[in-house]
Amino acid sequence: MASSKATPQQGKVWFITGASSGFGRLLTEYLLTLGANVVATARRTELLTDLTTSQYAAQVQIIGLDVTKPSQVGQAVADALARFGHVDVLVNNAGYGITGAVEEVSEDEYMPMFETNLFGLITVTKALLPQFRERKSGNILMLSSIGGLIGLPGWGYYNATKFALEGLSEALGAELEPLGVYVTIVEPGPFRTEFLGASGQKSKQVIDDYRETAGKTREYFDSQSGKQAGDPQKAVEAMVAAASAGRPPRHLLLGKLALDRFRGKIKSFEAEMAEWEETTLGADFPGVVAATPYK
User: Among residues 162, 202, 210, 225, which one is catalytic?
Assistant: First the structure.
C-alpha cells in the first residue's frame, strides 16, 4: 500500500528503459509507492500491464520501446511529454551482457549488445536532453557496472560497452552540471537480477586455450545466478536516494564486491604509475607546460 506521507519523489516524473524486469521493474514499483509518476518502457510491455490495473494506474504510463530503434525512441519521448509535460529523471537501464573470450564472441553476437547498451542509450539520452536544458534541472542515471571500471576475462565486449558508457557519461555530466542537470553513473557489482539468467548470453564458440580465463567466467555464469550477494531492492533504493540528493554523486558503486575490486584496481594503478613515473614524465618536450581548457 502506498504511503500517505509526502516523499521527495511525490509527483516527479521518471522515464525508465528496460522496465519489464530486473532493476527496471523493481525501480518502477518502488517509485510508484513513493508517489512518483513513471514512464515504464520495455520491448515486452505485456510484462508491465498489471501495473495499469493496480492502485498506481494513474501514475504509470507503459510504452513499448526498443532503444535500438530511433523512431520508437522519438515517439516514446513525445508520448511521455504529452502525458506528463516533462521528465525529471531519466534512467538508462536497458542492457545485457554476453560472456566469452574476445576471440570467441562473433560480431553478430556482440554488435546487438553495443546497439542496446551504448548506441540505444545515446539515442534515448539525446532525445530527452532538450527538455532537460530547457528546464535547467533534472537527473540522468546511467546504469553501468563494475565491469565499466574493471576489465575481466570473458567480459571483454560487455566491458567495452560499459567503459564507453563511463566516458560518455563523465563528459555529459561535466557539460550538464552548469545547467542544473546531474548525471550519476551507477556501478553495481553482482546482484540477484536476471543478468546471469534470462537476460545473459554466452558465445556459441568455445576455444579450449581460454579454459582457465574466459572459461572460468563461463562457469561462473552457469552456476551463480540467484546466489549473488547484492540485494536488488536495496540497489534501487540507493539509486532513488542518489537522485534525491542535493548534489548527486557522479559515480555510485553498489555492493561490497564492487567497492573492493575498484579499490584494488586503484591501488594497483597507483603502484604501476609510481614504477613508471620517470618514463611517463620523460615523454614530454623539456620545459613545455601543456595548455588545457579544463581545471
Answer: 162
Residue 94 contacts residue 67 (beta carbons within 8 Å): yes
Integer angstrom CA distances of residue 140 from 62, 165, 183: 20, 13, 5
Examine the residue annotation and report whether 144 is marked as an active-site residue of this protein.
Answer: yes
Which residue in 158, 202, 203, 210 is the catalytic one?
158
Active site residue 223: no
The CATH class of 13-276 is: alpha beta
At residue 197, does pLDDT exceed 70?
no
Split at pLDDT 50, 70, 90, the class of 57 is: very high
254: which strand partners? 188
Cα 7 from chain centre = 24
pLDDT score, position 147 = 94
Q: Which of 21, 144, 203, 225 is catalytic?
A: 144
DSSP-based helix, strand, coil % in the chain, nearest 5: 50, 15, 35
The reported pLDDT for the residue numbered 240 is 96
Q: In three state form, how does the secondary structure of 194-238 look?
A: CCCCCCCEECCCCCHHHCCCHHHHHHHHHHCCCCCCECHHHHHHH
Active site residue 20: no
Question: Is 83 a residue whose pLDDT tops 90?
Answer: yes
Residue 212 has pLDDT above 50, yes or no: yes
Confidence (pLDDT) at 3 = 44
Domain extents for the chain? Answer: 13-276
